[in-house]
Amino acid sequence: MNLRLPSGTRDVLPEEMAERRRIERALLDTFAAAGYGEVSTPELEYPETMELGRLTAPYRVTSDSGEELALRADMTGPIARLAATRYADVAPPLRFSYSAVVHRSVSPGKGEARELLQAGIELLGVPGPEGTAEAITVLSQALEAAGLAGFSIGVGDIALYPSLLDDLQVAAEEQAFLLDALEGRDFVAIAERAGSLGLDAESARLLGDVPAMRGDASLLETGGVLGERLAGLRSVVGALDSRVADRVIIDLGRFPRMGYYTGAVFEVY
C-alpha cells in the first residue's frame, strides 16, 4: 500500500486549518463589504474554459462518457464562463469573489505546490484606472483585515516596456529576448542586450534603465518619452485614497506574463 502524498501536495492539520479559515473569513468578509458576491464553480471544467484565462490546464481526465475534462488551474476562466452564461443579460459592472483550490503543474525539485488555495475578486465592466484603483483598494483592505500590517503594493504597467520596444523599432527576435529577461527580472542581461542593438545612446540607456526603476509615486513625474507612457499609472495612483496610495511602490519592471494581463499589474511585497 502506498501511503505517500504526491509531490507538491500536503495535509493541513487542525491548528493550521483554523488559522487558514480565520484568514479566509476575513478576506471574504472584506470582499462582501466592498460589494463582491461570493461564487463557487466546479473544480472540473472543460479545457476550453481554462483557455478563457489563457492558461493551459495541467491535469486532464476523461469522464465516464468519454468527454475530456480539466482540473481548474485558475479562477479567472471559470468566472468568465459564469459571467457569460449566467449573467449575460445583467448590465455591468459585475463583482464576484471566491476562495477555491486550483491545480498547477510543478517543476521537479523546486518545492512548488500542486494545489493552491486562491482567494480573490473579479471586477468586470469597470475599465482602466478606475477599476484598477478599486481592485488595489479592496486588496489593501483585505490584507489589513487578515492581520497583515507591514506590506507594500508594487504597481506596474505590463504594456509599458513592449510599447517602448515598438516605438524604438526593436526587431521581433530581440524583443522576445528582452521580454523573457524582463519576466525573469534579469536586469543585467537587459542592460547588456540594450547596449548592443545599435540604438542611440539615450534610447539604449532608457531600455536598460526602465526595468530596474522602482520607487514611490514621484517616479511618475518622469518626463520625456517615458513620462508619456506613465499616464495610465498616474491615473491609477491619483484615484487611490491617500492611505492606500501610501502603500504603493511604482515598479516599472513588473512583468508577469499571463495572457489576460493587459494594463496595470500589481503584487504585494
**Beta-strand percent range:** 15-25%
What gyration radius follows from the Cα positions, in whole Å? Answer: 21 Å
Secondary-structure-based class equals alpha+beta
End-to-end Cα distance: 43 Å
Inertia-based shape: globular
Write a short abstract of this structure.
With 269 residues, the protein is of the alpha+beta class. It is built from 11 helices and 10 strands.
How would you describe what is shown here?
- β3 and β4 form a beta hairpin.
- The chain starts with 13 loop residues before the first helix and ends with a strand.
- It has a four-stranded mixed beta sheet with strand order 8-9-7-10, with helices on one face.
- The protein has 269 residues and is an alpha+beta fold.
- It folds into two domains: 14-125, Bira Bifunctional Protein, Domain 2 (BirA Bifunctional Protein, domain 2, 2-Layer Sandwich), CATH 3.30.930.10; 156-268, no CATH class.
- It has helices spanning 14-33, 47-52, 76-86, 128-145, 160-167, 172-183, 187-194, 201-209, 224-229, 231-238, 242-245; strands spanning 37-38, 44-45, 60-62, 68-71, 94-103, 115-124, 153-157, 214-215, 248-251, 264-268.
- The longest helix is centred in the N-terminal third of the chain and has 20 residues, at 14-33.
- It is globular, with a radius of gyration of 21 Å.
- α6 (172-183) packs antiparallel against α7 and α7 packs antiparallel against α8 (201-209).
